[in-house]
Amino acid sequence: MQHTQFLAVVALLAQAALSFPTLKTTRSCAYTCGSNCYTNSSVTAAQAEGYKLYKSGNTNDDYPHQYHDYEGFNFPVSGEYYEYPIMSSGGVFTSGSPGADRVVFNGQDELAGLITHTGASGDDFKECTS
Known about the structure:
Blueprint: H1 3-19, E1 31-33, E2 36-38, H2 40-56, E3 65-67, E4 81-85, E5 101-106, E6 111-116, E7 126-127
Antiparallel strand pairs: 1-2, 3-4, 4-5, 5-6, 6-7
């Protein structure tokens, strides 16, 4: 095959490759806690369930409960904080093991952030990345 024919074939292959749509397989993580990826919709669902229970005075296995922020995180909202489990499965916590991750909100239903026991000492928390 001559050099010009080779270049013509490469150009056609490149054009064909560019015409195929690419598949996006990554999830859009609003927060990452350890190796768990949480989408905006899973964060919203956990916060909504936690706040609903907080307002009604009910709990699911003692959640939500007040979060005292002993670690001194710099949350973007102020107030008294409450924690509610966020499940790595994407489902909403109803009972049983709460896992390591929590959504934190205040009494005005404002999201403070996500925290995790993963990588923290003892019963302490670490802030999840956003």
